[in-house]
Task: inverse folding
């Protein structure tokens, strides 16, 4: 065997081994993180998590944080879904290949990975500060402000999936409807959005998965509350915020509660992303 | 149908078409308004942080960027320490994540048996779905202690300039800078290096999935020609696939960098939150995002304004990085004719 050939073969073998190793390292860290979350989370699971509030400290549970998370996420999704779907529809149906449309599509992709803590500060400036001034300090941080911050993070996800899903709808459908004299707004609302429905729902679920683990934007908007809060104009705690607070606490029993919260959030997020993937793969099959 | 048309007086027809046109206009404005909210969110975030930071900018001027002071007692603030922490952790993250992601992408597109590719790719993408606070907790309770017990002693004793037994290793004595980088007498794991590693694990799925996707756009014809000429798998990956997808690969890397720069939770837990400028990667530090997360709720006056100014800097820098990322990614899409 000539030596350049041997060298090439060795280089190749080395590269193959290294790339396999890289994949194994990635998978190992995934397994390590999931395993610790499962192990520590399950050992901390307890009925009091769901029945007691955080005001009791280490003897308490996470009930108010769970309710708060549900409410804040609901507000976020309820705001982001209509706006995101309509904006995505505009990009796909009305502004495709126009200058403004292309720029907004481009900027939406940037918003998708913009730092979430800055979004929190933005909502702090436009909602928390004005309400503090207007109510002379009686209403400051609120669950609603937290919901708006999360909506800003969910928005680009929904815009993007709606845009992509609508562009997958075959143009024959549009042509058929338009040739029957259906106005374009009716075509969009009653035919196209319906045709892309499962894809759009997937986008909303993905957005929900994305925001349910967000912590940074909630710190200065919903703030936190050790008591049960249902009214969105009150300060509200959420699971990620309680995890953050408890993990920084020196007490071991607080850490156990934080792990339990981490377990609940991780399971919720993973189930959501698996579920949305399932919907998406099913629709792909039905389209083919 | 002429019979039908005759039954409809022309003014009704006209009314109907007017109504349709009105609805159409309203609908268009509604959709456009929603789309403009995306624009407003970006401009608003930049504007709000700039407005919030105006006091800091006007008080310290350009000095804010280069000053390492952060002293609430004397009300003097500078961005250097958190900016350094953000850049150092992101740089370490890229240094680790780029080669690993490239390896994963090559494995998944060229090496692995076909039946294995989709499940492994989905598993790696699962990593991207885990909330960042979980990375932070894992880093704080699992990885940082592991690092402090098993990796850090080796690093400080063999590379650093402050070893436990006082005897400098060969590397620390003869190679410049390395001793400073790994010298530390801080007893815990939380440090710039650990934060960089946790960030790397976080951005690996982003970078590798972009790389894998763009690798799949390389025409089979090109790869097969190279194989037919006797190229090895590695040569095809390095000399054919990578040059063809270069701009998109750089785009993917910048996308990961954008994530790393703005990440708050994963970093805050493992950075140690120390307002100090240390040459050592094993010493604790702080980043822009974690400084804001730690101090904002208790800050007021000039300190709050300085934090807002930091947020503005972070936003502008990530915006530019993400802008480059998207432009680079678009180049390949253009080439593809998409």
Result:
């Amino acid at each position: 065997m000539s030596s350049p050939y041997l060298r090439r073969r060795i280089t190749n073998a080395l590269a193959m081994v290294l790339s396999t190793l890289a994949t194994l390292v990635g998978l190992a860290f995934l397994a390590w993180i999931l395993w610790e979350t499962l192990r520590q989370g399950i050992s901390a699971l307890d009925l009091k998590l769901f029945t007691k509030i955080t005001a009791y400290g280490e003897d308490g549970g996470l009930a108010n944080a769970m309710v708060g998370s549900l409410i804040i996420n609901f507000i976020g999704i309820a705001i982001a879904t209509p706006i995101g779907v309509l904006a995505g529809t505009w990009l796909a149906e009305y502004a495709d290949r126009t200058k403004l449309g292309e720029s907004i599509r481009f900027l939406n992709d940037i918003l998708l990975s913009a730092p979430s803590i800055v979004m929190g500060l933005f909502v702090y400036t436009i909602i928390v500060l004005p309400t503090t001034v207007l109510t002379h300090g009686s209403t400051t941080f609120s669950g609603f402000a937290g919901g708006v911050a999360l909506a800003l993070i969910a928005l680009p996800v929904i815009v993007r999936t709606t845009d992509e899903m609508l562009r997958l709808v075959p143009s024959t459908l549009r042509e058929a409807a338009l040739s029957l004299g259906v106005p374009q707004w009716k075509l969009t609302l009653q035919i196209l959005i319906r045709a892309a429905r499962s894809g759009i729902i997937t986008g909303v679920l993905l957005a929900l998965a994305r925001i349910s683990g967000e912590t940074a934007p909630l710190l200065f908007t919903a703030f936190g509350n050790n008591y049960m809060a249902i009214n969105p104009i009150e300060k509200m705690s959420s699971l990620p915020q309680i995890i953050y607070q408890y993990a920084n606490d020196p007490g071991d029993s607080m850490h156990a509660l934080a792990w339990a919260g981490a377990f609940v959030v991780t399971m919720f997020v993973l189930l959501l992303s698996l579920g949305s993937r399932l919907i998406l793969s099913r629709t792909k099959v039905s389209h083919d | 149908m002429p019979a039908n048309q005759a039954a409809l007086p022309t003014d009704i027809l006209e009314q109907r078409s007017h109504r349709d046109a009105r609805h159409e206009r309203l609908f268009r404005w509604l959709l456009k308004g929603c789309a403009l909210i995306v624009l407003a969110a970006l401009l608003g975030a930049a504007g709000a942080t700039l407005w919030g930071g105006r006091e800091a900018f006007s008080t310290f001027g350009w000095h804010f960027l280069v000053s390492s002071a952060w002293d609430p007692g004397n009300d003097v603030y500078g961005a250097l320490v958190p900016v350094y922490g953000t850049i150092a952790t992101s740089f370490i993250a890229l240094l680790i994540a780029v080669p690993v992601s490239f390896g994963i992408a090559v494995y998944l597109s060229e090496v692995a048996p076909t039946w294995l590719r989709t499940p492994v790719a989905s598993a790696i993408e699962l990593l991207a779905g885990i909330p960042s606070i979980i990375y932070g907790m894992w880093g704080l309770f699992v990885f940082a202690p592991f690092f402090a017990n098993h990796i850090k002693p080796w690093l400080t004793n063999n590379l650093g300039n402050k070893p436990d037994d006082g005897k400098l290793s060969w590397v620390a004595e003869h190679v410049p800078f390395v001793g400073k980088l790994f010298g530390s007498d801080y007893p815990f794991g939380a440090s710039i290096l650990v934060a960089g590693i946790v960030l790397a694990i976080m951005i690996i799925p982003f970078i590798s999935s972009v790389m894998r996707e763009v690798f799949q756009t390389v025409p089979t014809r090109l790869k097969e020609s190279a194989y037919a000429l006797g190229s090895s798998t590695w040569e095809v990956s390095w000399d054919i696939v990578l040059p063809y997808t270069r701009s998109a690969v750089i785009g993917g890397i910048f996308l990961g960098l954008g994530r790393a720069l703005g990440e708050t939770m994963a970093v805050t837990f493992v950075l140690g939150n120390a307002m100090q400028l240390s040459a050592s990667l094993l010493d604790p530090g702080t980043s822009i995002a974690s400084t804001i997360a730690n101090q904002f709720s208790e800050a007021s006056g000039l300190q709050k304004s300085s934090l807002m100014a930091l947020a503005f800097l972070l936003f502008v820098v990530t915006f530019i990085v993400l802008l480059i990322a998207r432009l680079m990614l678009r180049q390949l899409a253009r080439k593809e004719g998409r």
User: Anything to note?
Assistant: DSSP finds 16 helices and two strands in chain B. Residues 10-52 of chain B form the longest helix (43 residues).
